[in-house]
From TrEMBL:
CDD domains: NAD_bind_m-THF_DH_Cyclohyd. It comes from Ferriphaselus amnicola. Its EC number is 1.5.1.5, 3.5.4.9. Residues 139-281 form the Tetrahydrofolate dehydrogenase/cyclohydrolase NAD(P)-binding domain. This is Bifunctional protein FolD. Catalyzes the oxidation of 5,10-methylenetetrahydrofolate to 5,10-methenyltetrahydrofolate and then the hydrolysis of 5,10-methenyltetrahydrofolate to 10-formyltetrahydrofolate. Keywords: Amino-acid biosynthesis, Histidine biosynthesis, Hydrolase, Methionine biosynthesis, Multifunctional enzyme, NADP, One-carbon metabolism, Oxidoreductase, Purine biosynthesis. InterPro entries: Aminoacid_DH-like_N_sf, NAD(P)-bd_dom_sf, THF_DH/CycHdrlase, THF_DH/CycHdrlase_cat_dom, THF_DH/CycHdrlase_CS, THF_DH/CycHdrlase_NAD-bd_dom. The gene is folD.
Length: 283
């Protein structure tokens, strides 16, 4: 078997066009959805992510604010900035790019963001809402992965979904979203004993471990849908995922490439969450 390649770029374009229609409808009512992105410090990867988030907003005609604070910003100053944006009616979505510098308590920061503007879905209230089936904002990367499956025609209900990775940003919310769509879900970690026993039984396999090429073709069930959330830079400068694409594509039914798979969807769902937040505040 040669897998169908899930084209994240093309699907992201399609989804963005759908959300642009909703954003334009709000603008016709005098409401421009607005996103504020705060970055603290100079982490090069974070700077690229933040620039791309702001650019995606501009492309859809959204209002965006890029707040770059120096690495030595105090926790109190950051919390004050968050409070200001929580109260700003032009802003419907607010996020602080992670990780924050070590002298700042990341949990305190996430707790300070208004749950009504928490477009990353990281506030404990929104984590709880997802866990209890009352989702308000789904975290963007797992939400985007779910949309990739849906748009590719992969059926989820009743299927065995295995998520490798249990981070708060990807693995845990991914498992909850799949459960919400009636999959039977197993969560594994890089420490799972006999990991292949689980992955070989997966109809849907989502991998988010940050370990380059750790899932190989012999660990995948024939015809499975494989979503590779990993993005790793190799010694030769090339990017690769957590799945060994070459061997996996011979076995899988569907597979996302790296780059060009999940990546373009993450920012798309951030825009979607921002527009949705503006819709809610507009009533
Ligand atoms: N750092 C890595 N991924 C993310 C994300 O989705 N949101 C935020 N705020 N920071 C991140």
């Amino acid at each position: 078997m040669t897998a169908r390649i899930i084209d994240g770029k093309a699907i992201a374009q399609e989804v963005r066009a759908e959300w642009k229609i909703r954003a334009d409808a709000l603008k016709a009512r005098g409401i421009t959805p607005g996103l504020a992105v705060i970055i603290v410090g100079e982490d090069p990867a974070s700077k690229v992510y933040v620039a791309n988030k702001v650019k995606a907003c501009a492309e859809l005609g959204l209002h965006s604010e890029h707040i770059a604070l120096p690495a030595d910003t105090s926790e109190a100053a950051l919390l004050a900035k968050i409070a200001e944006l929580n109260a700003d009616p032009k802003i419907h979505g607010l996020l602080v790019q992670l990780p924050v510098p070590k002298h700042i308590d990341g949990d305190k920061v996430l707790n300070a963001i208004s749950p009504d503007k928490d477009v990353d879905g990281f506030h404990p209230i929104n984590v709880g809402a997802l866990a209890t089936g009352n989702m308000r904002f789904a975290p963007c990367t797992p939400y985007g992965s779910l949309v990739l499956l849906q748009k590719s025609g992969v059926s989820i209900e009743g299927k065995h979904a295995v998520v490798v990775g249990r981070s708060n940003i990807v693995g845990k919310p991914m498992a909850l979203l799949l459960l919400q769509h009636n999959a039977t879900v197993t969560i594994c970690t890089s420490k799972t004993v006999d990991l292949a026993k689980y992955t070989r039984d997966a109809d849907i396999l989502v991998v988010a471990t940050g370990r380059p090429k750790m899932i190989t073709g012999d660990m995948i069930k024939l015809g499975a849908a494989v979503i590779d959330v990993g993005i790793n830079r190799m010694a030769d400068g090339k990017l690769c995922g957590d799945v060994d694409f070459e061997s996996a594509k011979e076995v899988a039914g569907w597979i996302t490439p790296v780059p060009g798979g999940v990546g373009p969807m993450t920012i798309t769902m951030l825009v979607a969450n921002t527009v949705q937040s503006a819709e809610r505040s507009a009533g």
